[in-house]
Write a structure and sequence with these properties.
The strands form two sheets. Strands 1, 2, 3, 4, 5, 6 and 7 form a seven-stranded mixed sheet that branches. A four-stranded mixed sheet has the order 8-9-10-11. It is α/β, with parallel strands linked by helices.
């Protein structure tokens, strides 16, 4: 079992409440409850026992008629003979599967509601000739998105929100699908720089070969910048008219 226990965003936000990622599902894979995600702050101050289910731990064999014990938002015991303390809230998972929360690593959740309504889509930056490396897609996440609840109901508890468009689309973020403010949802940002190959014209190219060559050039520019950053910042290193490339002297 895994738990999302009070991690801090890379940007230095406040520590979020302890949330245990557990999904209780029927054998037909229809979500029945993601109870510990929906209880929010209350999970910090109670003991919960999920009993009688078919438990699929992260490692090790499946546990038939297993029990998962959660105390103060943390999983403290998983097994077939776990003692449930008096006063614990019991969840009967008989006939259901109990699994770790799923992670979707390629989504637009929170930055795209209705694709046909542009005002609800916030996943692409204009950039400069198809390059938007500094675009932080998470700044546009809507924490009240109507798309989060269906994802939780399907057993997804964490997602990577990625930008789209151009050649270098921007920076992605890992969030937990918990109720609350955006700061409560942050797990880590950024987690990746997103590049994509598709329609080369969307990235300012005419062919995929040209698109690939542009990506190689950009990566080489990054290497040069990292090696000669101080010179660049003193404006001693020439760069192209677009300001994208750093040239060798």
């Amino acid at each position: 079992m895994t738990s999302g226990i009070g991690r801090v965003p890379a940007s230095g936000g406040r520590r979020k409440s302890a949330i245990t990622r557990i999904v209780v599902r029927t054998a037909a894979l229809t979500a029945v409850a993601a109870l510990l995600l929906s209880t929010g702050e209350r999970a910090d101050a109670q003991t919960i026992a999920i009993t009688g289910g078919k438990v699929h731990p992260v490692s090790g064999p499946v546990i038939e008629n297993g029990t998962v014990l959660v105390r103060d938002g943390k999983i403290v015991a998983v097994g077939a003979n776990v003692t449930v303390p008096n006063g614990a809230t019991r969840i009967d998972a008989t006939g259901k599967w109990v699994t770790p929360g799923l992670i979707n690593s390629l989504t637009s959740l929170g930055v795209a509601e209705v694709n046909a309504v542009q005002a609800t889509v916030d996943r692409s930056a204009r950039g400069d000739s198809g390059i938007a490396a500094s675009f932080p897609v998470w700044e546009g996440i809507n924490p009240a998105s109507t798309m989060f609840a269906p994802a939780r109901n399907d057993g997804v508890t964490s997602v990577v929100v990625v930008p789209t468009g151009g050649l270098i689309a921007g920076q992605a973020a890992l969030i937990d699908l918990v109720p609350g403010a955006l700061s409560d949802m942050f797990d880590k940002a950024p987690v990746a720089m997103v590049a994509q190959f598709g329609d080369p014209r969307s990235a300012g190219s005419n062919a995929r070969g040209e698109q690939y060559a542009r990506l190689k050039e950009v990566l080489e520019d990054v290497r040069i910048y990292a090696r000669r950053r101080s010179e660049f910042e003193r404006a001693q290193t020439p760069h192209s008219r677009r300001g994208e490339r750093i040239w060798r002297r």
